[in-house]
Amino acid sequence: MTRPEPRVSAGTVPAQDADGRLALAPDHGEDAVPVLEARDVHVHFSGTDSAGRPVTIRALDGVDLKLFPGQISALVGESGSGKTTIARLFALIHKPTHGEIMHDGKPIRVRGGRAERAYYRKVQLIYQDPFASLNGLKKVRTIVSRVVKIHFPRLGRVKNRERTAELLEKANMTPSARYLDRYPTDLSGGQRQRIAIARALAVDPDVLLADEPTSMLDASIRLDVLNLLGDLRESENIAVLYITHDIASARYLSDQIHVMYGGKIIESGPTESIISAPLHPYTKLLLGAAPDPARFKGSGTPTHEPITDSRPVDNSSDIPGCRFADRCPVAMPKCTSEALPLFRSTQDAHTVQCWQAENAAEYERQS
Ligand SMILES: Nc1ncnc2c1ncn2[C@@H]1O[C@H](COP(=O)(O)OP(=O)(O)OP(=O)(O)O)[C@@H](O)[C@H]1O
Ligand code: SF4
Ligand SMILES: [Mg+2]
User: Fold this and answer.
1) Residue 3's pLDDT band (boundaries 50, 70, 90)?
2) Domain that holds residue 342
3) DSSP letters of 128-175?
4) Structure pTM?
5) 89 and 99 within one domain
């Protein structure tokens, strides 16, 4: 497996643009085949309402999402919006109630056997809590080399050892010899997350699904882990799904931002377009509530007033219109009575599900 050398050496900060954001990966054309894709995916669960009556929870309600090699796609939204369900769907932990998952342009229908094992290898989950995901009783060397041995049994002991050290270096644990004989309990939260990333890289994945990978880390080391993901995007040509509540970190790290609300992706597009010209009132809410974009070296301050309303989203009713209507300051009667169309920008890949786009010159109705 020959891979290009990392673009930056250990501990350095990857290239950034004039605004202090990580440099963007090149855009994929309209015809590019995504490495992973959700097509009109619905995931429903059985649950109960506050009175204990059975309800259907629409965790995902018609999601389209494409992940491309060498790109970081951020999934942003409040608690319960469906972010983890998307990661678990791509990891084959949940099955779609409706819709399809495509891998390299082919539907994933085969369950079990070699095809499923190959898929699990290609799509790796990075969890929120690195400590819970690592066996505290095993040395770092054992944690990583075991995965190398399972997936590359013919490597032999010496090559396995070399590969294990190389993976630690890729995760910026340098020099690797300093960490190989330590236990996860002897490492900081950021170092443990790096070990979790090194272990995920051990299987030579196409996709990393990183579900809030920095939310349990001290603010001082979050940036290191984000920079590592940014670096791997390019050096390993991996597709990264970066899940976060924090639109400021999504702005810093990602090429694309997808904003979720109530089981739907309600606004989506190139990061700069979402940040500089958000259209959906909920995206404006998120930008208005972003605590301090300057801490991710973004330029300027948010221009949108935060909407102060913390009512939880209702994802159990089957309504034809917009789930955000009861919180939306510019809602219209048709927002709740008519099916919500998708609008697409004529300038770029920016899409939005909101009637506000109907009167915006640069948007065309798609559905
Ligand atoms: N296994 C399950 N059974 C029933 N309901 C579920 C299950 N998993 C998720 N849900 C529900 O689906 C919805 C989406 O959950 P999900 O965990 O994807 O949200 P999230 O955006 O990741 O939230 P958070 O930011 O809190 O992690 C929520 O209403 C949640 O309660
Ligand atoms: S569709 Fe209507 S209610 Fe929903 S966000 Fe847009 S304007 Fe507000
Ligand atoms: Mg979650």
Assistant:
1) very low
2) 36-137+183-365
3) S-HHHHS-TTS-HHHHHHHHHHHH-GGGHHHHHHHHHHHHHHHTT--S
4) 0.89
5) yes
